[in-house]
Amino acid sequence: MYHPRVESFAKAHRHDGARLAPERLSNTVALRLNSAAPASASAPSELPAEIAFLLDFGVPRGVLQQGARLARRHGVFADEALLSEGLVDDEVFYRALAQRLGLPFLTSGFTIEPGSDFRLCARRGYARLAGQGGRPAWVCAPQGEAIGRLIEAARVRKAAPGLAVATRAEFLDAAARATLGAVARAAPYRAERIDAALCARRATQGAVLPVLGVAGLVTLVMPFWPNAALALAAALPLALFFAAAVALRLIACAASLFARDEPEIEIAEDRLPRYTIVAPLHLEARVAPQIARAIDKIDYPRAKLEVIFVVEEGDDATLSALRRCGPRTPHLILIAPRGAPQTKPRALNIAAAYAQGALLAVYDAEDIPEPKQLKRAAALFARAPRNVACLQASLSIDNGAVNRLTALFALEYAGLFEVFNKGLAALDLPIFLGGTSNHFRMEALRAVGFWDAYNVTEDADLGLRLARAGFAVRTFGSQTREEAPQNFGALLSQRARWLKGWMRLAILRRIQLLNNILYE
């Protein structure tokens, strides 16, 4: 059974998302709960309405004033700042709100009507309860301006019948469970819905694969034929291919010398967009605490930061490590259900169903990004043209001094991320993404269908699909540290996986070209 979870500080909750299913409140419970502008316009001496009621429930004024100051600084509602920074417990807040409104307070165990949409429920803050023969029929976990409106409505008239209050985490947990099956079923096919011809599963169907196999076999055999003309005919194209690859690298390296580094810029915290961090983990119990600590060190307003971990079902060791050593930053743990294909891009697509940020970053378990990396990326996106879909941060090796193997690995990464990719970006050419420390505009990911779940080199494939759709990828100098393999066996396994993935991607692109020739 698929049981995604949200963990917020010391508490564990569950979360999920799926298809859009609009709902309408009955006239009795019709409440406009959608948030408007943050209450940052309030005078500093006043407490915003969304938190002022807590004074009557024993919360110190100083704590509420601190939350209000953070809200003004970050450009969010005061309740968001108060809860995300851990100044007030989630249950304390919403239990007090229910008492002020004269409404029942629901604890865990309630169920939201199936077919609800996670992001829609999160945005509106209310949903219909499932299987309720009596009262209540609706549950809400309002935020921001909606809290003040509800309190004012309760002051002038009796509380709306049929409505109950739950904590934000429990509300989102129930909304998640309502869409459990749809997310798991849709995740492998998101890219296919945009352009099936570019996807690995569809590209290998039909008569093209045998044709390509025969052509490849003939090409391999021809250089060994006794006929010199045939041998030369086979060897010459291969030589030209490799020469072109070398020439591309030399040109990109030369272009990097003339590429201008983006100036260091900062934008005010109240103008920063909401950011989602996704970290897919598989058999990573040893390093899971490392990424948790790294996330806690990220310098970004917590009310605007969403962290999503994805763990494969059955990977109990990694799940236990995350629960034991997870970040203090409010986060979400999704347990990806068993199913085909069990790949990293499928896990990323599952996470994307829950992502609510305007920007999204992908990290691996061993990554240690610079604390200001998200702020730098957000500032660069704010200045960049809208067609810039992705910013690739530089990966650097932090164990390069261990032995000669790690030293060579560190040199290779420096050449790739500081020179080659930088040159490709300067030439406006497609870039094979690094698989981690990628920062995306969510609108661009939606436009290309996110990741191809059947492609094991999803990073390189996504870079090509973004370029084909007219988007650009740029690099920036922020560093993310990670470990290099320390022995030849680990390096060989890694490189074999990479090379097989790249070869398959190259074959898929040839298949797509032949499909266009044969069937169009």
Please tell me about this protein's structure.
With 520 residues, the protein is an alpha/beta fold. 46% of the residues lie in helices and 14% in strands. It has helices at 49-52, 61-74, 78-84, 90-101, 118-124, 145-156, 168-178, 180-186, 192-195, 200-203, 208-221, 228-258, 288-296, 316-325, 344-352, 373-383, 404-426, 442-448, 458-468, 488-519, and strands at residues 5-8, 11-13, 105-106, 126-128, 138-140, 163-166, 275-281, 305-312, 331-336, 359-362, 368-369, 388-397, 438-441, 472-482. The protein has a ten-stranded mixed beta sheet with strand order 2-1-9-8-7-10-13-12-14-11, with helices on both faces. Helix 2 (61-74) packs across helix 3, helix 12 (228-258) crosses helix 17 (404-426) and helix 13 runs parallel beside helix 14. The protein is elongated. The two termini are 43 Å apart. The model is unreliable at 1-44 (pLDDT under 50). Its main location: membrane.
What is the topological layout?
Blueprint lengths: L4 E4 L2 E3 L35 H4 L8 H14 L3 H7 L5 H12 L3 E2 L11 H7 L1 E3 L9 E3 L4 H12 L6 E4 L1 H11 L1 H7 L5 H4 L4 H4 L4 H14 L6 H31 L16 E7 L6 H9 L8 E8 L3 H10 L5 E6 L7 H9 L6 E4 L5 E2 L3 H11 L4 E10 L6 H23 L11 E4 H7 L9 H11 L3 E11 L5 H32 L1
Parallel strand pairs: 3-6, 5-6, 7-8, 7-10, 8-9, 12-14
Antiparallel strand pairs: 1-2, 1-9, 4-5, 10-13, 11-14, 12-13
